[in-house]
Amino acid sequence: MKTTIYIGTSLDGFIARNDGDIEWLVKFQNQEVDDSYQEFISKIDVIVIGRGTYEKVITFPSWFYEQKVYLLSTTIKQVPDHLREKVTILSMEPRELINYLANEGFSNIYVDGGKVIQSFLKEDCIDEMVITKVPEVLGRGIPLFGYLQNDLHFKHIRTEVFSNGLVKSHYERDRE
Length: 176
Known about the structure:
alpha/beta, Dihydrofolate Reductase, subunit A, eight-stranded mixed β-sheet, two-stranded antiparallel sheet, 31% strand, globular
């Protein structure tokens, strides 16, 4: 089982504005960025998101994900009819969820959403991080990282600079 974060942040570490707005990020989307995401997502067989990410994604013109999505939420009780086959709502802690997904036959989890990512990091349940820095400073917003009781060491694998100024860095958890 492999868990991966693939996310964009502002230079000061925010994944969205306080109200969830990501227009500052979306304006950097181009074919190069799309191709990079497609390369990543082609290796993923299941996606785990939180309420905030779900509430943002359902505002898009069409459902964004092709893979099965597990929505971690204690407040959302059902999804619209057209998403019932695509989204399953669960309320589990990261390790419990990983075991559940492994038993369901999944092996590559894409973990998305600020609070969900933070909960997985708190339980040391992230194997890889692909973080793309966007050349914007927001000053405030929803942070990617939160408080951890213990340091987590990641090994830098590679960094790629896109023509539009985005800088994508890939890290793997170093458990030695």
